[in-house]
Each structure stands twice: as structure tokens, then as C-alpha cells.
Write a structure and sequence with these properties.
mainly alpha, Cytochrome C3, two-stranded antiparallel sheet, 38% helix, globular, binds heme C
């Protein structure tokens, strides 16, 4: 193991323990108890899951007037980092942007496809990647095949590389919602260990 990756691993494990200690597990429990279907219920049935997911994402945002210098952004829901929560803005109907400047262009429907990505350490909640909200804003070729091979599990994604701007970090932390504070971790790490219907290797 190279000394650098040793430190990276050490940092991640440390971060997990600190975050767990700080109550990330409680945040997640609140979220899951509030709205997501219970284990072995209908969790994993795509349509149901999306409804709950969107409701939850939308509920978590708050409008804080006077928090943005840009007038047009002031009335939009914000996330815990103080930035606009664009998912909530769309889901709650604050905005409804056109798909194209060309009024005749046909708008493709978002792709309803959730990808489960296990966080490969104990404790840290697993990731659910929703194609729907991404393909609402983006085209397939923004991500495939250059950032992600379109095959579940085919990409060796790690948080360390995400923090350095690879994978999800190509957008998140730059133009899409950012990592901190820890309430934002939960937007990706939304499925508690043992709460998915997938076979999990890290408990
Ligand atoms: C934009 C989505 C996203 C956000 C935000 C995010 N993560 Fe991750 N995280 C991932 C993905 C994807 C993985 C890859 C899962 C795997 O293979 O381990 C991951 C993996 C991890 C892992 C497993 C170990 C590793 O290095 O892969 C840890 C620990 C982790 N994240 C911590 C965090 C913390 C702490 C935060 C908040 C500061 C956070 N994550 C925010 C997407 C995200
Ligand atoms: C924001 C990035 C992004 C966009 C945009 C995107 N995808 Fe994906 N796609 C992913 C990720 C991440 C995965 C999972 C890769 C992994 O697990 O390693 C994935 C996986 C897939 C898979 C594999 C599913 C499986 O079960 O193996 C298919 C098929 C796919 N995408 C099709 C599409 C299509 C079609 C579009 C456009 C309508 C699209 N994707 C747009 C990021 C994206
Ligand atoms: C090509 C750019 C791009 C990439 C790559 C990307 N995202 Fe996103 N993601 C977005 C945009 C844009 C949104 C809409 C919300 C926003 O702008 O903050 C979004 C929204 C989301 C949401 C919706 C939940 C919420 O609270 O808004 C989740 C979850 C998410 N991304 C996870 C991921 C994960 C996990 C990966 C990597 C596997 C990833 N994203 C890679 C651009 C991207």
C-alpha cells in the first residue's frame, strides 16, 4: 500500500467513525423512518421508490429569503450548504425549464433507473444513483461512456477520487450539489446498511 493511499484510507475510516459518532446514523434513521419504505416492504420497486425519494428530497430543502445576492435565486429552496437545491426546485414545481431553446424540439422523458452502489466500508450508508433527476437535466452522453461505463458495478468508484473531482465529483462539488455539510453526504448515501434489497458485502 502506498503511503498516500494509506493516509487516504485512514482519513476515510476516521471520517466514517466521526460522522457516525456525530449522528449521521440518526439523520438517516429520521429520513428512513419518515418516508422511505421499510425493509422488505416495497423498497426496490422502482416507481414506489422514486415517489418516496422525491418527496424526501423535496421535504429536506428550505427557502431562506435573503440568503442569496442573486434575486432570482432568493425564492428557491436551499440545501444545507446554502446553495439552491435544484432537485427540490424542480420536484416542488418552482421551476420548469424547457428542454431546448428550439420550441419544436421534443423533450425526452427522464430515465427511471436507480443504480445501487454499495459503500465499500462498514457503517457508511449505501448510495442510490437516480438516473431520473440526472437525465432530467443531462443527456446520456454527458456521462456515458467517458465518465461511467454504462454497466452497474463496472466502475471502480471511490470517495477519495470523488473528492478529487473524479466520477460523481466531475459535477458534484462543482456545478451540482456539494459534499459538505454532512447532511449533503446523505443525499447520495441514502440507503442504510441492510435496508436495500441487494446482497451487501459490507455490513
Ligand atoms: C455525489 C454523491 C456522493 C456524495 C455527496 C458523497 N458520496 Fe461518499 N460515495 C459516493 C459513491 C458513488 C461511493 C462509492 C461506493 C463505493 O464503491 O465504495 C462513495 C463511497 C463512500 C465511502 C466508502 C469508501 C470509499 O472511499 O469509497 C465513504 C466512507 C464515503 N463515501 C463517505 C462520504 C462522506 C463522509 C460524504 C460527505 C462529506 C460523502 N461520502 C458524500 C457518492 C457520494
Ligand atoms: C450523471 C451521469 C449519468 C447520466 C447522465 C446517465 N447515466 Fe447511466 N449510469 C450512470 C452511473 C453512475 C451508472 C452506474 C455505473 C456503476 O454502477 O458503476 C449508470 C449505469 C447505466 C446502465 C447500466 C444499468 C445496469 O443495470 O447495468 C445503463 C443501461 C445506463 N446507465 C443507461 C443510461 C442512459 C440510456 C442514459 C440517458 C437516458 C444514462 N444512462 C444517463 C450515470 C449516468
Ligand atoms: C454530469 C454531471 C453529474 C455527474 C457525473 C453526477 N451527477 Fe448527480 N446530479 C447532477 C445534477 C445536475 C443534479 C441535480 C441537482 C443539483 O444540481 O444539485 C444531480 C443530482 C443528484 C442526486 C439527487 C438528489 C438531490 O438531493 O438532489 C443524487 C442522489 C446524485 N446526483 C448522486 C450522484 C452520484 C452518486 C453520482 C456518481 C455515481 C452522480 N450524482 C454523478 C449532476 C451529476
Amino acid at each position: 500500500m502506498k503511503i498516500k493511499s494509506f493516509y487516504a484510507t485512514f482519513f476515510m475510516v476516521f471520517a466514517v467513525i466521526v460522522l457516525a459518532g456525530c449522528g449521521i446514523q440518526e439523520d438517516l434513521n429520521n429520513i428512513i423512518n419518515a418516508d422511505l419504505p421499510k425493509k422488505n416492504d416495497d423498497f426496490g420497486q422502482e416507481d414506489d421508490y422514486y415517489e418516496k425519494f422525491y418527496k424526501e428530497v423535496a421535504k429536506r430543502s428550505h427557502i431562506k429569503k435573503g440568503t442569496s445576492d442573486i434575486k432570482a435565486l432568493d425564492g428557491l429552496p436551499k440545501d444545507p450548504s446554502g446553495n439552491v437545491n435544484w432537485t427540490a426546485a424542480v420536484v416542488n414545481g418552482y421551476i420548469s425549464p424547457r428542454g431546448s431553446l428550439d420550441p419544436a424540439a421534443q423533450d425526452d422523458l427522464p430515465l427511471n433507473l436507480n443504480i445501487f452502489i454499495e459503500a465499500k466500508v462498514p457503517l457508511m450508508a449505501n448510495v442510490m444513483f437516480p438516473h431520473s433527476i440526472h437525465t432530467y437535466w443531462l443527456s446520456c452522453n454527458n456521462c456515458h461512456p467517458k465518465i461511467f461505463i454504462p454497466e452497474a458495478g463496472a466502475n471502480p468508484i471511490s470517495m477519495d477520487e470523488i473528492f478529487k473531482g473524479q466520477w460523481c465529483g466531475r459535477c458534484h462539488g462543482k456545478v451540482a450539489f456539494t459534499f459538505w455539510p454532512r447532511e449533503n453526504c446523505v443525499r447520495c448515501h441514502i440507503v442504510l446498511k441492510g435496508q436495500s434489497l441487494e446482497r451487501e458485502s459490507y455490513k
